[in-house]
Amino acid sequence: MRVAIAGAGAVGRSIAHELIDGGHQVMLIERQSQQFEPETVEQADWVLGDACEVSTLEESGVDQCDVVIAATGDDKVNVVVALLAKTEFAVRRVVARVNNPANEWLFTEAWGVDVAVSTPRMLAALVEEAVSVGDMVRLMTFRQGQANLVELTLPAETPLAGRPVSEIALPRDAALVTILRGERVIVPQPEDPLEPGDELLFVANAEVEGDVRAALGY
């Protein structure tokens, strides 16, 4: 994919390195000359300019990108970049960084954001996930709350032990996407048996999370 990243600070550069290592083409857009350091990510294309300006995005060829990531440390900038990328350049996927959780309500589809990434929320979720067994933990929100990535770890005394995945009567708007078992990542098949300690990852509509818990006996 071709990915444009607005903001070439520590976060933007780290994302760029990860994407380049994954074989993607990356363009970094940075408006502050003191952070314009092409030598730090030599494999990326660099643009010195303001990503909040339509002219900058047009000249840099954002319309040819598959993904735009608004990764600056300013939530107002990230929202504006997301809106321009989606409405002016029809970028298929827009990801925006949320710096202040109080601003999370702004990062919606109405402002061009497909996926909002809130670091504080993710860290809190990971802490919960580390200590919660038998409880459902929301790890990430997609499409502004219409669907969530949720995790539930089966306790030692789970009644599901030994039962196949096909016996879990999930609601319509939920899917079991992965089972984490020790160091293994299992793409679940209907006949795969469940084991105590399994971490089950679901993508589910927020309204049916309770039904997912009920299907697992909680």
From TrEMBL:
Annotated GO CC locations: plasma membrane
InterPro entries named among the record's database cross-references: K_uptake_TrkA, NAD(P)-bd_dom_sf, RCK_C, RCK_C_sf, RCK_N, Trk_Ktr_HKT_K-transport
Residue ranges of every copy of the RCK C-terminal domain listed in the record: 137-218
Domain RCK N-terminal: 1-117
Gene Ontology MF annotations: potassium ion transmembrane transporter activity
Keyword terms: Ion transport, NAD, Potassium, Potassium transport, Transport
NAD in keyword set: yes
A Pfam family hit: TrkA_N
Positions of transmembrane segments: none
Protein name: Trk system potassium uptake protein TrkA
Gene name linked to the record: trkA
